[in-house]
Amino acid sequence: MIQLIRGFKDILPGEVEIWQQIESVARQLLEDFGFKEIRIPVMERTELFARSIGEDTDIVEKEMYTFPDRKGDLITLRPEATASIARAYIQHKLFAQDPVQKFYMIGPMFRRERPQKGRYRQFYQIDAEIFGVQSGLADAQLIYLLVTLFTRLELADINAHINSLGCPQCRPDFRKALTRYLVSVSDRLCSDCNRRRDRNPLRVLDCKVPTCREALTDAPSIQDSLCDDCRADFDEVMSALDNLNVPFVVDKRLVRGLDYYTRTAFEIQTTSLGAQSAVAGGGRYDNLVRELGGPDIPATGFAIGFDRLAELFGLNAPDMIPRPDIFLAALGAESQALAFEWVCLLGKSGIRAEMDMGAKSLKSQMKRADRLGAANVLIVGENELKEAAVILRNMATKEQEAVPIDRLVENLKKRFNK
Ligand code: HAM
After folding, report:
1. According to the model, what pLDDT value does residue 320 have?
2. Whose CA is nearest to atom 12 of ligand 1?
């Protein structure tokens, strides 16, 4: 038997309803905040991701699905959406009329990470981006939106972590100070951290290895190195969150795994999902649009890990599998033909109707109606045809009544308010 590729998964009925519910709440909220949907391709030129996410990140170094196409051009299955949305914003000059644009997209991403609970090689994101706003108010609004979404989905155990990663003015000094510190504790750091030290020292700050965490207790904090502009910007984000009554923690270890960030970075974390604690992450990326060949336009955004959100939501979601409104149990060829016509007309009218499309005993049809959880059963047999009335049985109350065959679909539509 041919099985799934490792790290990929099917989302089966039973679970898919959770995804649909989350998606509809998320879309509504994003649109209420003025975000417009954008759909971008699942593949892009490799160079787009290498340049935006950064050559020295784990994603670009070892996690991208990259192939030469038949002509030998390198293409990559998108590991995230920000780079593609920025590309579309530049390519279609979406800034021309108004640089301020808000987009969202929902779809699959691909990263060849080591699979574990909450970490997949094909996973889904709900991504939102705001272009053209320099103010920290945009970052605060994104965090507010995320917290509102999680509250609307009735998820508890959600914490907003925020940090500022500085800018090209102040970050180099911090990098130097941090690298000096990392050299001084190098014998206590894991091999990954020692390897990252020279190329991407900030990443060392979020190493999960306990001995590394301990060795980093006295590491310099980026919060102490921010230039005046970055400090004022971060203060603005914090006071906006305070005014909106959004609780948050300033997490000086929060650095994110993509290189394009400047200033505010944030994550929504939970302790309910084990090791994969980030349900959403994002931040400001003021230089990306320019670096990709566009005008000098700031931007900020986030992506929610849809799989993780669905897992969290599923922890206390009731069974949401849709049940038939009515099961038509038919006996005899004539009744079967009539039932079939009714099933089609009922479906067209928005009433979920099911039947057995093959001659079965009444007992076996009633059993199947039960298994499907049908709310009602309509019994159509020779007697019923003779009487020109069928029997409608409410499966919960067990009450039965005769319903005339004449104008049956109209009659049922009224009963089901359709
Ligand atoms: P990211 O932190 O790489 O950011 O991913 C965002 C979220 O996607 C994570 O917090 C996590 O919930 C989910 N995620 C990431 N990798 C996996 C995986 N292998 N399996 C399951 N879920 C995963 C970004 O992707 C940025 N583009 C976010 C952003 C938008 N920044 C600015 N705008």
Report:
1. 81
2. 305
